[in-house]
Write a structure and sequence with these properties.
Blueprint lengths: L10 E6 L19 H14 L4 E6 L39 E5 L16 H7 L4 E7 L1 H14 L3 E10 L7 H12 L2 E3 L1 H7 L5
Parallel strand pairs: 1-2, 1-4, 2-3, 4-5, 5-6
Helix pairs in contact: 3-4
The structure holds pyrazine-2-carboxylic acid (VGL) and zinc ion (ZN).
The site of pyrazine-2-carboxylic acid (VGL) has 7 residues, from helix 3.
């Protein structure tokens, strides 16, 4: 990564769908999904230390959501509202003031992006957010679509490369999604480079 400005006001950490159902043993397990948690905890610590905002999105479906197989969708039931599977990974160290964005909450609508039918953009704009640092699950669905919408809404996007994992319905889906995000203008960053951002002046 070329030298970036230090972490600063306007920087925001966004953690996407790190929920039990997407972890190994969950209803829609993402391979290696649990591995993002310790990484994200380190990013959380950096943002927390700088008093920068932290948001989490969650998949939050009604029990008969249209994306579930019983309704003709492609997924097994997952992240049903108020069930243990919809809870955040219990070892994810979310500060108490973390802002939660729930998405895909309506029976008849799928929403992979945290911006779709939510007040997310409004909240971020109110906060004067500029650079969004995003990680979580899954690279090829909710990360991809949230990143695409963030770019459409003119934020600068940094994807946390060591804190994302793909579902890979087709084995190359994750890699494809990464290529697409890069092509659209997202930058990829790792924890080591992030630590540098704490020290490097503009
Ligand atoms: C997701 C599949 C279905 C995700 C949500 O969070 O990436 N994937 N629902
Ligand atoms: Zn879902």
């Amino acid at each position: 990564m070329t030298k970036k400005n230090k972490l600063q006001t306007g920087d925001v950490l966004i953690i996407i769908d790190v929920q039990n159902d997407f972890l190994p043993g969950g209803c829609l397990a993402v391979p290696g999904g649990d591995e993002v948690v310790p990484m994200l905890n380190r990013y959380i610590a950096l943002f927390y230390e700088k008093a920068l905002p932290i948001y989490v999105t969650r998949d939050w479906h009604p029990a008969d959501h249209c994306s579930f197989k019983a309704q003709g969708g492609i997924w097994p039931p997952h992240c049903v509202q108020n069930t243990p599977g919809a809870e955040f990974a219990n070892n994810l160290q979310l500060p108490t003031h973390t802002i939660v964005i729930s998405k895909a909450i309506h029976q008849d609508q799928e929403a992979y992006s945290g911006f779709q039918d939510t007040v997310f953009d409004e909240l971020l704009k109110n906060d004067n957010s500029q650079r969004l640092f995003m990680g979580g699950l899954a690279t090829d669905y909710c990360v991809l679509n949230t990143v695409k919408d963030a770019l459409k809404h003119h934020y600068q996007v940094y994807v946390l490369h060591d804190a994302i994992r793909a579902v890979n319905v087709q084995s190359a889906d994750g890699e494809q999604a990464i290529k697409e995000m890069r092509k659209l203008g997202a930058e990829f960053i790792e924890l080591s480079e992030m630590s540098e951002m704490l020290e490097i002046e503009a």
